[in-house]
């Protein structure tokens, strides 16, 4: 079976790159996706859903180089949900997305860009998934 998820949101933290024991680069970062609506009483509402994103190989290197906290991105990939109980016994859950494609959104003047960063709408696709 095949699944594909596309999210658009802002990085909640700077990317963190590490390497597997065999030297494969892996970059992780969080993305906040905001949903806004008006409730039945006419009051504006907002809900933020957090995704933990992992990018591999060349895509990991590019994300680590060009992304930073606050940057708007589109991420396409496969999602996995994990649930657990925290130290106080409260249920917790996370959505983890393995990136296949990351598109850097916004212009060069947006928070998190550098003079050498790819241009607006630049995207990188990785067909070299770790599994």
Would you kindly provide a written description of the structure presented here, covering whatever features stand out?
This protein is mainly β and 131 residues long. The protein has one domain: Nucleic acid-binding proteins (OB fold (Dihydrolipoamide Acetyltransferase, E2P), Beta Barrel). The protein contains 1 helix and 7 strands, in the order ββββαβββ. The chain has one helix spanning 57-66, and strands spanning 5-11, 16-19, 25-38, 44-56, 72-85, 91-104, 123-125. Strands 1-3-4-6-5 form a 5-stranded mixed barrel. A hairpin with a 5-residue loop joins β5 and β6 (91-104). The radius of gyration is 16 Å and the shape is globular. Mean pLDDT is 84; it is low at 112-122.
Q: Shape, please?
A: globular
The radius of gyration over CA amounts to 16 Å
Helix/strand/pairing class, anyone?
mainly beta
Number of helices: 1
Highlighted features:
single chain; 131 residues; mainly beta; OB fold (Dihydrolipoamide Acetyltransferase, E2P); five-stranded mixed barrel; 1 helix; 7 strands; 8% helix
Brief write-up:
The chain has one helix and seven strands; from the N terminus they run ββββαβββ. The chain has one helix spanning 57-66; strands spanning 5-11, 16-19, 25-38, 44-56, 72-85, 91-104, 123-125.
């Amino acid at each position: 079976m095949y699944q594909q998820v596309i999210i658009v949101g802002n990085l909640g933290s700077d990317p963190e790159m590490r390497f597997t024991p065999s030297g494969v680069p892996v970059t992780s970062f969080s993305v906040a996706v905001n949903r806004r609506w008006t409730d039945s009483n006419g009051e504006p509402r907002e809900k933020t859903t957090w995704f933990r994103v992992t990018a591999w190989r060349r895509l990991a290197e590019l994300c680590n180089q060009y992304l930073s906290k606050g940057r708007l991105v589109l991420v396409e990939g496969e999602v996995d949900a994990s649930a657990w109980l925290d130290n106080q016994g409260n249920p917790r859950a996370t959505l983890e997305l393995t990136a296949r494609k990351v598109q850097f959104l916004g212009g060069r003047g947006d928070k998190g860009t550098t003079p050498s960063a790819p241009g607006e709408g630049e995207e990188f696709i990785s067909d070299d998934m770790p599994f």
